[in-house]
Amino acid sequence: MPSLSKLQTAVRDVSLGGDASALVADIIGDGFAPQQRLNIHRNNTTILLGEALAATYSVTHKLVGDDFFEAVARLFVRAQPPRSPCLFEYGEGFGDFLATLPAAADLPYLPDVARLEWMWNAAFHAADVTPLTSSDLAFVDADAYGDLIFSPHPSLRLISSAYPIKEIWDVNQDGADPNATVNLDEGPQALAVLRPKASVEMIELSPGGFVLAQSLMNGATLEDAFAAAQHNAPNFDPAPTLAVLISVGAFQSHTLRP
Amino acid sequence: MTNLAHTAHSLASPISASPLPLRAGIGLKAQHYQEIIDTAPNIGWLEVHSENYMCAGGPTQTWLSAMRERYPISLHGVGLSLGSAGPLDQTHLKRLVDLEHRVEPGHVSEHLSWSIADGVYLNDLIALPYTEEALEVFSTHVLEMQDALKRRVLIENPSSYLRYEHSVIPEPEFLLGVVDKSDCGVLLDVNNVFVSAMNHGFDAIAYLDQIPADLIGEIHLGGHSQVEFDDRVLRVDDHGSRVCDDVWALYERVIARCGPKPTLIEWDSNIPELSVLLDEAAKADGILNAYTEVSHAVAV
């Protein structure tokens, strides 16, 4: 008689696609092959987790179609099954996983679209925090601006892609013009994804703006973040981008370098 | 083990006055949020899957708060995996406690099954082997859950597709054994009893009759499907259709014996218009009302 622990490990392995031979002696057939009974559970895990991924990755799903998505989801579920029962947080690595699949190489923008969908999902479920506004900075001495350090809003995510992923995302939303097309030669795109209030927003950033936002998000002082952005994009004027980031609610609080 | 049912009945304290109305409720689905707010349908209560609302923030929580202002809520867990060998996931238990504090639900329930092995969540409710070891593991976890929540929880009988050679305790006795050891209540899923009875060839009525009325805190009704293998059929509890006639008949039998109980219409796949769920709930309310009137008549 197997211990509960051993039995559960064996069923888990079968549900994730493994061989059932070790379990056959423990399952009452009663008119069915034990494998047929175990298949109900394998299907539950595979299909329902695939549906959870399809819900989070609806644009990716649309881009590749049902058959391809189901096949990739099955591979992903078996390679990286959930570690938490909260399925809204399942599937973080799906974009990176797509990037490793030769079968998806014909759609080079696919991993970044999936990463963008994950960021949307993470922003949607992030903590509700009132963002910092420019009036919160009214009492900061102008001489001290360079010492400002911002704490990012909990929903804020940044992504930089070689492809126009926001356009791809837009034309694949429900209700979008079915004849709309995206010119992949539109080139690279960087985005801030955040949910300052009820709705998730995507803000397009210039190359310098992306470095600025990334530096601030990583805890750099404003002085260092401006320098990093201008080093990366010499003609970049960081002040307007900073004003946009503050006005959209990208930060939750500020401190001054001690 | 044969007299376990008797000891469970005599030792466990009966569930106190139901914290949910003795009416039909429906499972809350995101597709129906707006319509429920806009039309305020006359339903007794709503049930949600706890795990869907454990996010740090965002619109799903805002919706749940709006629902809680309008209806009693029951929290139905699918992820604590009380039947798993090894310790409960403490992070998950803490999230459940936090959610319970926010929602102040009428009931908190979980399943007589397991979903996690070696830290992997299979998103499935899998039957336990009904052994002394599993009874000890499961009951200890129910006690831990109740200690963390500081309240009694309801445990739902499973639908099952397989049984194990080394299972030695009949399922209703195992369930009542858990009640005996942990003083939890029972969430009686009539469809699950029917599905398992058909899949394993036991008598659904005998099973239902074995659960004492005063242990039953809530009833679930849902639809199931049939999967054919060669010339044989397995019933699969997919909550994707109307409650079948056989299950309605079993339900009426339970209510006739036990009196009215809060009754949930569950629908989790192929989710239809809200009106279909309300229609099923009205049908359950009709049966509940019939037996409410009978008991009033007797009281008068």
Question: How would you describe this protein?
Answer:
Chain A is built from 10 helices and 5 strands. In chain A, α6 crosses α7, α8 packs antiparallel against α9 and α8 crosses α10. With 258 residues, chain A is mainly alpha-helical. In chain A, the strands form 2 sheets. Chain A has a 3-stranded antiparallel β-sheet with strand order 2-3-4. Chain A folds into 2 domains: 107 residues, no CATH class; 147 residues. Chain B is of the alpha/beta class. Chain B has a single domain, classed as TIM Barrel (Alpha-Beta Barrel), CATH 3.20.20. Helices cover 43% and strands 19% of the residues of chain B. Chain B contains 10 helices and 12 strands. In chain B, the strands form 3 sheets. An 8-stranded parallel β-barrel of chain B has the order 1-2-3-4-7-8-9-12. Chain B has a two-stranded antiparallel ribbon with strand order 5-6. At the A-B interface, α1 and α2 of A face α3, α4, β5, β6 and α5 of B.
What's the helix and strand layout?
The complex is a heterodimer of chains A (258) and B (300).
Chain A: H1 4-15, H2 34-56, H3 58-64, H4 66-79, H5 94-99, H6 110-125, E1 148-152, E2 157-161, H7 165-171, E3 189-194, E4 201-205, H8 207-217, H9 222-232, H10 238-248, E5 251-256
Antiparallel strand pairs in A: 1-5, 2-3, 3-4
Chain B: H1 4-11, E1 24-27, H2 33-39, E2 45-49, H3 59-70, E3 73-76, H4 90-103, E4 107-111, E5 114-117, E6 120-126, H5 132-149, E7 154-156, H6 171-182, E8 185-189, H7 190-200, H8 204-209, E9 216-222, E10 225-229, E11 232-236, H9 245-258, E12 263-266, H10 274-299
Parallel strand pairs in B: 1-2, 1-12, 2-3, 3-4, 4-7, 7-8, 8-9, 9-12
Antiparallel strand pairs in B: 5-6, 10-11
Helix pairs in contact in B: 1-6, 5-6, 9-10
Question: What is this entry, summarized?
Answer:
Chain A is mainly α. Chain A is built from ten helices and five strands.
